[in-house]
């Protein structure tokens, strides 16, 4: 955190978190689900600067469902953020900014974009001529996707995602740009093994799956990723079986990876939920919910550089 009160201070008790960079004059935005399954949110008033107060539990106003179970958010390549949420019936809803860093639309849903019943969602901005892309695990354990045909524009229909060589069943997803416009997707399977696939060009085709245990990953049960500024690419965080936080980063944009950190990354305590986003100044902000339900945060001191202490 550069200035002001961080979102981990005076935070409500949260069960999960999601984050996104946004355009306009603001920085990152963070959403959380409280113990009442309602959405609360906080945003950076200036890029890399101070934070607003927590808004909620009726953050998005009327028109949506009363209870939520999952969240994901991404920029749409025109600076505006979209937020997707699953309600307690596993129906998909969406809400989006009407201008970069500005106000929000009404909720669209249930079953946004003709979605079926879903149980896990993940979104990411991508480069090239398209906008955001959304992935989901459906009620039949299939990985499906849809994408924005143009930045901020219409969406494709849902389509199945190619299976791994092992026909894996996935439980957790994360995606991030690699600082060269290409997106990389990670997925944890039912055996806690990590798989990955990435675009061969910004907004273009994808490689086959790499895995299991991508980049020699140990068994994992949660994963989060973010693009970062500077001369590095994406950074990936994961939670191991014993609730240890570890990380792996791309040494160059779209290039090779550092390998997984040893021990607890940045001296983090045991954690159960994680999220990350750029702050509109190139620095990444990372959040985690600890084993005892406390929200903590840490931020880069320069784009692609070192990290502050935990707050």
Q: What is the spatial order of strands in the main beta sheet?
A: 7-8-9-10
Average pLDDT level: 93
State the helix count.
Answer: 0
Separation of the first and last Cα atoms? 9 Å
Strand count, sense and barrel status of the largest sheet are:
4 strands, antiparallel
- Uncertain runs: 1-5
Oligomer: single chain
CATH superfamily: Fucose-specific lectin
How large, in whole angstroms, is the Cα Rg?
18 Å
Percentage of residues assigned to helices: under 10%
What would you call the structural class? mainly beta
| CATH fold field value | Neuraminidase
What features would you describe in this structure?
The protein is mainly beta and 311 residues long. The protein has a single domain, classed as Fucose-specific lectin (Neuraminidase, 6 Propeller), CATH 2.120.10.70. The protein has strands at 14-20, 29-34, 39-43, 68-75, 81-87, 92-96, 118-124, 133-138, 143-147, 159-160, 170-177, 183-189, 194-198, 220-227, 234-240, 245-249, 271-278, 284-290, 295-299. The strands form 6 sheets. It has a 4-stranded antiparallel sheet, with no helix packed on it. Strands 1-2-3 form a 3-stranded antiparallel sheet, with no helix packed on it. It is globular, with a radius of gyration of 18 Å. The relative contact order is 0.13.
Features:
single chain; 311 residues; Neuraminidase; 4-stranded antiparallel beta sheet; 3-stranded antiparallel beta sheet; 38% strand
How is this structure best summarized?
This protein is mainly β and 311 residues long.
